[in-house]
Amino acid sequence: MGKAPTPRCIIVRHGQTEWSKSGQYTGLTDLPLTDYGVGQMKRTGESIFRNKFVDPEEITYIFTSPRTRAQQTVKLILEKLPQKQRDRIRVVVDEDLREWEYGDYEGLLTHEIVELRKSHGLDQNRPWNIWRDGCENGESTEQFGLRLSRAIARIQNLHRKHQAEGIASDIMVFAHGHALRYFAGLWLKLGEEKSCDGQEPQPPTYQDSSVPYVALKSYRHLVDNPNFLLDAGGIGVLSYAHHNIDEPALALAGAFLCPPEEESQHGSTAD
């Protein structure tokens, strides 16, 4: 038996909603997909599995935001798989993957937020940057970064375990626009690292005994825009260089897989 492929974390933004279409900031507001969004995600599911961009036999877990739009997307992506395959994939609803809590900015457009902050006397010396400045009466970037760091630690811990066991492991993460771009930034170790000293222990944000809780010693948060794009319904792929869980990386080829004989270039410690 050959070596299992390098584990991957496949991030999926939910399909189109009325507010993703209009550009309104959608955090806790629990919107369903539009009719277009439903068809969009059905087509995406058919495509990624039919073309083997993702092998359903290698999906070990799906982690999803608790919001309706994310969980609806999970069901639509998996819809055409045989029941036997769907049953073997563990789906974990995780509160840590919910969208940025926008506070006073919920439902607003960017230019409306800029005007609101201006009326509050903010941003006189530099323009608003959500990745640095966070949201009034919502989450700071430190709060957002902490909970996404927790989610990443759990996924990478599972990947480490599966790799040691020789198990192929694609873990899919279904969430939101800001959450997944931020998630990708932290995966690549962007931003700043802070100690968790003084942080109160966090109770698990999910209900699945097969997912070990990982206590963080430190976490990361962003201080600027990571300059990633992920449209509604979009898919990105995160993985590891040199088959090493301690070297998280962006898979620039996305869901396209190199033939095994070509992948060997990533097996050494050379860049």
Structural class: alpha/beta
Oligomer: single chain
Reading off the top of the CATH hierarchy, the class is best stated as Alpha Beta
Shape field: globular
What is the CATH topology descriptor?
Rossmann fold
Q: What's the N-to-C terminus distance?
A: 27 Å
Q: Which stretches of 5+ consecutive residues score pLDDT under 50?
A: none
Q: What value does the Rg take, in angstroms?
A: 19 Å
Integer average pLDDT: 93
Number of helices: 9
What is the name of the CATH superfamily?
A: Phosphoglycerate mutase-like
SSE topology string: EHHEHHEHHHEHEEEEH
Percentage of residues in strands: 5-15%
Q: In the CATH hierarchy, what is the architecture at level 2?
A: 3-Layer(aba) Sandwich
The domain tally reads: 1
Major sheet: size, sense and barrel closure?
6 strands, mixed
Strand order in the largest sheet:
3-2-4-1-7-8
Q: What is the strand tally?
A: 8
Which bin fits the share of residues in helices? Answer: 25-40%
Binding site for substrate: 26-27, 69, 99-102
InterPro entries: His_Pase_superF_clade-1, His_PPase_superfam, PGM_Phosphatase
Protein name: LANO_0G05732g1_1
Active site: 14, 99
Task: Name a few traits of the molecule.
two-stranded antiparallel sheet, 6-stranded mixed β-sheet, 271 residues, alpha/beta, 9 helices, globular, Rossmann fold, 14% strand
Write up what this structure looks like:
Helix 7 (141-164) packs across helix 8 (177-187). This protein is an alpha/beta fold and 271 residues long. Helices cover 34% and strands 14% of the residues. The model has no long low-confidence stretch (mean pLDDT 93). The protein has helices at residues 18-22, 35-50, 68-78, 83-88, 110-119, 130-133, 141-164, 177-187, 260-263, and strands spanning 8-13, 59-64, 90-93, 170-175, 192-195, 218-221, 235-240, 248-250. Strand 7 and strand 8 form a beta hairpin. The longest helix is centred in the middle third of the chain and has 24 residues, at 141-164. The strands form two sheets. A six-stranded mixed β-sheet has the order 3-2-4-1-7-8. It has nine helices and eight strands. It has a single domain (8-250), classed as 3-Layer(aba) Sandwich (Rossmann fold), CATH 3.40.50.1240. The radius of gyration is 19 Å and the shape is globular.
